[in-house]
Design brief:
The protein has six helices and no strands. The chain has one domain. It is an all-alpha fold.
């Protein structure tokens, strides 16, 4: 579906990016981080979404391909894996 949409010239935000706000909201509430943290995290997610769309446009590839590549790179690098710091 992503390729079909891209081929038809439809710009879309992949689910893994468009659903980030809900995931962030739940994480902030669960960890009692507050409104400032929520706003900061949502702003970062919006910036990432914009960057993915711009990168996909420049490379003439689907936003889903860019988003998956970036997500995989983050997971394999261990980025965001700071549970030990939170437990301290």
């Amino acid at each position: 579906m992503a390729f079909r949409m891209h081929s038809a010239g439809v710009l879309y935000v992949p689910d893994l990016l468009s659903n980030a706000g809900g995931v962030i909201q739940n994480a902030v509430e669960f960890n009692h981080l507050g409104l400032d943290a929520l706003n900061e995290l949502l702003s970062a997610a919006n910036s990432r979404t914009k960057a993915v769309l711009e990168d996909a446009s420049r490379a003439n590839v689907t936003p889903l391909g860019i988003a998956r590549s970036e997500a995989l790179a983050l997971v394999t690098s261990g980025a965001g894996n700071d549970q030990e710091a939170r437990d301290s």
